[in-house]
Amino acid sequence: MSFLVPEFPLGFGLAFIGSVPMSGPVAVLFMARLLGGERGTAALIALGGALVEAGFALGLAFALPQLFGRTKALVLVSLALGALVITTLGLLLALRPQFAQRFSGAGEKRGFARGALTTLFNPTLLATWTLAVSTLYANGWLSRHFLSALAFAVGVCLGSLAWFGILIGVTALRRRSVAPETRTKILRAMGGFLVVSGVFLGVRFVVELTHRGERRERGLERAGHLLDEVSHRRNR
Fold first, then answer.
1. Which of 27, 6, 45 has the alpha carbon at shortest distance from 90?
2. Which pTM value belongs to this model?
3. pLDDT tens digit string along 125-143?
4. Fewer CB near the terminus (10 Å): N or C of the chain?
């Protein structure tokens, strides 16, 4: 059971750091509700998103050994779709910030489902966690055991929730909702940041498609060789 020790903090740290920029569709929904003083709905949106993201991490951490040779295509498609979705969302939010309020107005009963579905159909997560998990495998920080993948996924879930929980706590200390003018400015700023993130994803797509694609494949091959060696030693 010792292999469980490092996976949890790895997942927690990656998810927590990855959540800080607030550069995804779920972050937009979360902030739209949080800025309006609806902390309960915001918490459910964050919970739904965190559970689905943990599911992505669990599936990739467990299934990556069977995906060698196909990961490059998955990453490229995810980056291309992600660049399109994130840039479009950012432009819409920057130009029409009230869109976020209308789209996220689901109430507490539907907040969880809205967060889960928005995360499920966010194409950038597939690329992000494929690259992260393959890097961890290549360095020997993940194993092919299901419990190893599960510990990693639990860390991802709690790491994401920890950041959103901090934001909820900060707004709770203020004990008042943000003024509509300030709310609009914050949402517009998030839109601008999403546009920058979308452009960055587009650049990553071009880089992966051209210069660094072969180097990424070699990294995945190293991870595959490592897994094969570990499996061989255990079967001797």
1. 27
2. 0.74
3. 877 888 888 878 777 788 7
4. C
